[in-house]
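Internal tracking record. Fields below are filled automatically when a chain is submitted to the structure queue. Please do not edit lines marked as system-generated. If the sequence contains nonstandard residues, flag them in the REMARKS field before resubmitting.
Queue: standard
Priority: normal
Entity type: single polypeptide chain
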Amino acid sequence: MPVRNETWPIEALPHEEALIPVVESFLAEGSKFDFSQSGIRQLYDRIDELAEAATKANLLDLVSNILGELDCLAICTSGVIGASEEEQERPGAS
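SYSTEM-GENERATED OUTPUT FOLLOWS
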C-alpha cells in the first residue's frame, strides 16, 4: 500500500521504515483513523500496539516529546491519502 511521506515532519523521516506498517494499519477496516480523536494519541497507541520492541521506545519518544498534533495527523493520514489517490488514477475508476 502506498504511503506518502512528503508531508511528514523531517524528524519522522529517519523512522520511515518502522512507521510505514503503523500508517498502513490505519487503512484496515475497523482500524481507520478517527478525525474526532487526537492524532498524537492515535499514533502513540498504534505504535505501542504494532511497533517492534527495538524501535518502539524511540518512536513513542518521538510522538510524545517532539511531534505536534499536525505532525502526527500528517503521518497517520499519509496512507489514507495515498490509497485514495491511487484508486482515482486506476483505469476504469470513477
